Amino acid sequence: MLKVGERIKECREKLGLTQDELAQITGYKSRSSINKIEKGGNDLPQSKIVAFAKALKTTPAYLMGWEDEKKDEPSAVILPAEKIHMIPVFGSVAAGFGAYASSDIIEYIPLYIENDFDVADTICITVRGQSMYPKIEDGDRIVVRRQESVDNGRIAVVMIGDEAVVKRVNFDGERLELTSFNPEYPPRIIEGEELANCRIVGLVQQVIKAV
Asked: Which residues are catalytic?
């Protein structure tokens, strides 16, 4: 049974793409990243599997080898192009929710978004720091849907004045508790007058691990 990296290489060569071209399409900086993936890419995050499937005109199921359980010769199927959207990547959490100048966007990456209404409100942000380790590490990217409220227990982007943080949220109407996954960072409690300077701006929907 072919591994994920071997399937990516097989599809790339069938399409006549170079490693450099595939790197550019899927958001990697150089061909060396593609070469590394093709030699052993079984730990790719789901978002990257979708991106590779779109670029290679096949399905995530084929790249993962799931179709082998159904038939001996899995065939490639083109994903619906209208569901793949180029989403802006911001270099910091604050930049993603500040002025939307073109200089704040460092690149665009393809993401599969099922609901077309979510596209305009979806952005990708590079996270710095280790307060949310191990779920979100320094250099990871988060896919965020802009919205003004989230259910308790969810991970959200919260603006405190001009500061933007990514935390687990718990709000009882009078007291907002922002919690990190990393136990070295104590919870942050916001209440009273300080609440007026604090607002939820987005829900973290997905984490794209740094390669």
From this structure: 131, 167
